[in-house]
Design goal:
Elements: E1 3-7, E2 20-24, E3 40-44, E4 51-56, E5 68-71, E6 77-82, E7 90-96, H1 97-101, E8 109-114, E9 124-126, E10 135-139, E11 144-148, E12 155-160, E13 164-165, E14 171-173, E15 182-189, E16 198-204, E17 211-214
Antiparallel strand pairs: 1-2, 2-3, 3-4, 5-6, 6-7, 7-8, 9-10, 10-11, 11-12, 13-15, 14-15, 15-16, 16-17
Length: 241
C-alpha cells in the first residue's frame, strides 16, 4: 500500500491550521467487486492528524496518483486524482474539495477513462487556453498525451505514441514562438513495465500536441521525470570610460 499527501490551501475544520489530503494506494491485485483493498481519498486535520473524511475511489481501483489541487473558473478548489495501475484500467477524476468534505460523492466528474491501463503519472497544470484557469495535460501509461480544459474538462487534443508507456510526469516550458506553454514528455518502448528497450524524449506543442522536438533515442531507460528551468538572459552594454 502507498500513501501520497498534499497540504490543502484551506482550513476545513477551522482550527487555524491547513489540512492534509492523502491518497491511500490500495491493492492492485484485489477484486474491486468483492475486496475492500481499494484506494481511498482521505482528509486529515493538519493540527492533530484526526481523520476528517474519507472516500473510496469511484471504480474501487488502486491509486498511485499524487493528488493535485487546482482552482476552477468559479474559484472552487478542485481535487484531481487518478486510479488504476500498470495491469489494471483506471480513470482520471475531479471532485471539488468541499464536495469531498461534505461527502457529495455523486458530484465526482470523470475527466478521462482508460480501458486498458491506469492513470499513474501526475498531470501538468498549465493554462494553455488563455482563460486564466489551469488546464490539465496528462501523459498516460497507455501511450497517449492529452490536454483537457480546466474549466469544463473537455479534451483539447490527444497525441498517441503506439507501443510506448510513460511512467514519468511532464515538464512545462516554452519551446516555440507562441505564448502557449509546451510540454516535454518521456516514453519508454518495450514489452511493458518494467521491461523496456529504449527511452524517447519529445517536446509537444501546448497548442495542439504537435511534436516540436524529437530528441535522440536513449538506449538507457529511466523512470525519472524531465525538468525545465526558465532563465532570463541579462543584456549588458559595454561602456567606455
Amino acid at each position: 500500500a502507498m500513501t501520497l499527501r498534499h497540504v490543502l490551501p484551506q482550513d476545513l475544520d477551522e482550527d487555524g491550521v491547513q489540512d492534509v489530503l492523502a491518497v491511500h494506494g490500495g491493492d492492485g491485485l484485489a477484486d474491486p467487486a468483492h475486496d475492500n483493498m481499494y484506494g481511498r481519498l482521505i482528509l486529515f486535520s493538519g493540527r492533530t492528524g484526526k481523520l476528517l473524511r474519507w472516500m473510496a475511489t469511484p471504480d474501487r481501483r488502486e491509486s498511485y496518483y499524487p493528488p493535485q489541487v487546482t482552482t476552477g473558473p468559479d474559484g472552487r478548489k478542485i481535487i484531481i486524482y487518478g486510479t488504476g495501475g500498470n495491469m489494471n484500467n483506471g480513470a482520471l477524476y475531479a471532485i471539488s474539495l468541499l464536495d469531498l468534505y461534505r461527502k457529495n460523492v455523486s458530484n465526482t466528474r470523470v475527466i478521462y477513462r482508460d480501458p486498458v491501463k491506469g492513470i499513474l503519472n501526475p498531470a501538468a497544470l498549465a493554462d494553455i487556453t488563455g482563460d486564466g484557469v489551469a488546464d490539465i495535460i496528462l501523459a498516460s501509461m497507455n501511450a497517449n498525451v492529452m490536454a483537457f480544459d480546466g474549466a469544463n474538462f473537455d479534451c483539447l487534443w490527444n497525441k498517441s505514441f503506439p507501443a510506448m508507456e510513460s511512467v514519468a510526469s511532464l515538464a512545462v516550458g516554452s519551446w516555440d514562438e507562441d505564448i502557449i506553454p509546451d510540454v516535454m514528455v518521456k516514453y519508454n518502448y518495450g514489452a511493458g513495465f518494467p521491461v523496456y528497450e529504449y527511452e524517447q524524449t519529445m517536446v509537444l506543442s501546448g497548442k495542439d500536441g504537435a511534436v516540436l522536438s524529437n530528441l535522440p533515442i536513449d538506449s538507457i531507460t529511466s523512470q525519472s521525470s524531465p525538468l525545465a528551468v526558465s532563465l532570463e538572459v541579462a543584456k549588458f552594454r559595454l561602456m567606455n570610460d
